[in-house]
Structures are given as C-alpha cells and as structure tokens.
C-alpha cells in the first residue's frame, strides 16, 4: 500500500511540475488579455506580437521609436487591479532600449501628451522570471502617459 501511495504522490508531483511551453503560455496570456479587454469594455488594438494597446489620447507632440529616451508617468498592475509599480505624476525617464519589450513596442504608439493602456503578455514582460513583486509568467497592465520624448 505504501508503494502505491508513493507512486501516486510522485505522479501528482510530476504532473503538477510540468512546464508550460512558450506557445502554451502565449495562448494562456492571450486568453487572459482578451477576457480583461472584454470585461473592461476596452477598444484595444492587437499588434500581432501579443501586445494590446488602447489610445485614450494620441497626443500632439513629438513621436518616439524603440531607440528613444522618454519621460513617462505610469501605473503598473495585474488584471485583478493590484498595483505592483507606479511613478510619480512627474514621471520617470529612461531609454526604451532598457525596459521590458512591451514598453519598447508600446510607448511609441503615443505622441508626447498621449495617454492610454498597454496590455502586455508575459513574454513581452518578465517572461518566466519573477521581478520584485511580479511573479513569473505575469500578464501586466500599464496606464501610461508619454510626457516627453527626450
């Protein structure tokens, strides 16, 4: 009986520890993002990389690209609304080469003065790594305002 129980426990542990492939994780993330977009009645645009974005205000200032340095005010949160990071209203400055891929791709969707939402799958965020209070494979939502292209 002990052997059968031990085999049962090993089977449970093995199945529970099965790694999810990157394509499976992409599907999980996309399902989560689509549900979030639906639940929050967002008019989001898909980029084809897994990123979705919402432009609330396009902005009329300078545009940027993935090589730009920018000043952005932001609030980062999970789909349950819990905040994991935010800047001051004055914003934070950084190079778009030094941030998560979802920001490198998403921030250029706005001009200076533009505001909106970036809905980022885990692969364009921290992926299979955790970072601070962000667990591995986390879908991330950011309210962003592009204050300035530096």
Describe the model:
With 150 residues, the protein is of the alpha+beta class. It has a single domain (20-149), classed as Chitinase A, domain 3, CATH 3.10.50. It is built from three helices and seven strands. The longest helix is centred in the first third of the chain and has 18 residues, at 22-39. The chain is globular. The N and C termini lie far apart (69 Å). The relative contact order is 0.22. Residues 1-16 have low confidence and may be disordered.
Could you outline the blueprint of secondary structure elements for this entry?
Elements (H helix, E strand, L loop, with lengths): L1 H15 L5 H18 L5 E2 L5 E6 L11 E9 L5 E4 L5 E4 L5 H6 L8 E6 L19 E10 L1
Radius of gyration: 19 Å
Q: What distance lies between the first and last C-alpha atoms, to the nearest angstrom?
A: 69 Å
Unreliable segments (pLDDT under 50, ≥5 consecutive)? 1-16
- Shape by Cα distribution: globular
The largest β sheet comes out as: 7 strands, antiparallel
Number of domains: 1
> Helix fraction?
25-40%
Would you tell me the overall average pLDDT?
Answer: 91
CATH class: Alpha Beta
Beta fraction of the residues? Answer: 25-35%
Number-wise, the strands total 7
Q: Any idea of the CATH topology?
A: Chitinase A, domain 3
Order of helices and strands: HHEEEEEHEE
**Shape-level CATH architecture:** Roll
Number of helices: 3
Category by helix and strand content: alpha+beta
Short structural description:
The chain has helices at residues 2-16, 22-39, 101-106; strands at residues 45-46, 52-57, 69-77, 83-86, 92-95, 115-120, 140-149. The protein is α+β, with helices and mostly antiparallel strands.
């Amino acid at each position: 009986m002990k052997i059968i129980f031990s085999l049962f426990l090993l089977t449970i542990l093995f199945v529970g520890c099965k790694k999810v492939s990157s394509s499976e994780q992409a599907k999980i993330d996309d399902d989560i993002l689509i549900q979030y977009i639906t639940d929050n009645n967002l008019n989001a645009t898909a980029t084809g990389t897994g990123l979705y974005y919402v432009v609330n205000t396009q902005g009329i200032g300078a545009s940027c690209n993935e090589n730009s340095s920018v000043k952005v005010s932001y609030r980062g949160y999970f789909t349950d609304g819990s905040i994991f990071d935010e800047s001051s209203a004055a914003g934070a400055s950084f190079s778009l080469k030094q941030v998560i891929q979802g920001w490198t791709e998403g921030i250029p969707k706005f001009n200076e003065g533009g505001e909106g939402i970036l809905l980022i799958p885990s692969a364009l965020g921290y992926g299979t790594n955790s970072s601070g209070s962000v667990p591995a494979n986390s879908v991330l939502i950011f309210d962003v305002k592009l204050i300035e292209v530096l």
